[in-house]
Amino acid sequence: MSQQTADNIKKIKATLPCGVELVAVSKFHPEEVIKEAYRAGQRIFGESRVQELLAKKDLLPADIEWHFIGHLQTNKVKNIVPFITLIHSGDSERILDEINRCAEKIGRKVRVLLQLHVAEEETKTGFTPEELYEYMSHEKWRTLNHITISGVMGMASFVENEEQIRKEFTEIRAMFDNLKKQYFPNDDGFAICSMGMSHDYRIAVECGSTMVRIGTTIFGEREY
Ligand SMILES: *Cc1c(COP(=O)(O)O)cnc(C)c1O
Predict the structure, then answer these.
(1) Which of 23, 61, 141, 195 could bond 209 through an S-S bridge, CB–CB 3.0 to 4.6 Å?
(2) What is the pLDDT of residue 119?
(3) Ligand 1 mean position to 140 CA, how many Å?
(4) Which atom of ligand 1 is nearest to the CA of 197?
(5) pLDDT at 2
(6) Would you state the pLDDT for residue 139?
(7) Containing H/E element for 201?
(8) CB 15, CB 25: distance < 8 Å
């Protein structure tokens, strides 16, 4: 069991091109397996629930880089802002404002990705491309001095059809390129295109992902 986690990480890393980062998604998995991954050299872990993250963080090495990947409620933002390395789920104007407000209070600057909604599923959160262009065009975001917009995050529809998945990842990468060109041309901080999970990360990488978020393939099925 324990060696399995390390082997899975090694296998995935061997297939990732240089420059694509691996976020090990540890949600619903216990500290022991996170430690196994840590011993295998993994330092970036992703969690999607604030309470769970807070409980685990104190039991694990301090040099872990925690990424938040789930939908955030505004009232919980203040709990993760002091230590979080990257928030992938910047999915609304309101949440970006709140992250900025909480970070300002403690004199921190927090890195955030703009979460895009391109998948067909109604349930997925995030800005639609239209909403995001609208948001960026008003340039109010430039006044948010305590967040660093570091790129985009997106998910493809949960379908078998590979062509559809490919089309959606291509759309997310195109948004990333357009935003980069239009708003961040000289900003090296805007560099992350976070897309790809266990079942579709190979396609995501082919479509230009720079950061994959993988849980099941590393840690096995989650028990909810
Ligand atoms: C759970 C989750 C993942 C990882 O999913 P797996 O299929 O287990 O690899 C990736 N991204 C987000 C946003 C998630 O919520």
Answers:
(1) 195
(2) 85
(3) 31
(4) 9
(5) 64
(6) 83
(7) helix 201-206
(8) no
Of the pLDDT bands very low, low, confident and very high (cuts 50, 70, 90), residue 3 is confident
Residue 23 CA: nearest ligand 1 atom is 10
CB proximity list for 71: less than 8 A, separation 6 or greater: 48, 89, 91, 125
Q: Using most ligand atoms within 8 A of CB, pick from 47, 199, 213, 223 the residue to mutate for ligand 1.
A: 213
Distance CA 173, CA 30 (A): 33
**At residue 215, does pLDDT exceed 60?**
yes
Amino acid identity, residue 219? F
Residue pLDDT, tens place only, 23-41 = 999 999 999 999 999 999 9
Decide if pLDDT at 123 tops 80: no
Closest ligand 1 atom number to CA of residue 153:
13
| Backbone torsions φ then ψ of 205, nearest 5 degrees | -65, -40
- Going from the Cα of 155 to the center of ligand 1, the distance in angstroms, rounded, reads 9
Query: How far is Cα 210 from Cα 91, in angstroms, rounded to an integer?
Result: 19
3 state DSSP class of 93: helix
Nearest atom of ligand 1 to the alpha carbon of 198: 9
Which residues approach ligand 1 with their CB closer than 6 A? 25, 27, 48, 69-70, 197-199, 213-217
**More confident position, 122 or 144:** 144
Find residue 151's DSSP bridge partners.
113, 192
For the chain, what percent of residues have pLDDT higher than 90?
Answer: 94
Among 5, 25, 86, 117, residue to substitute to test ligand 1 (most atoms within 8 Å of Cβ):
25
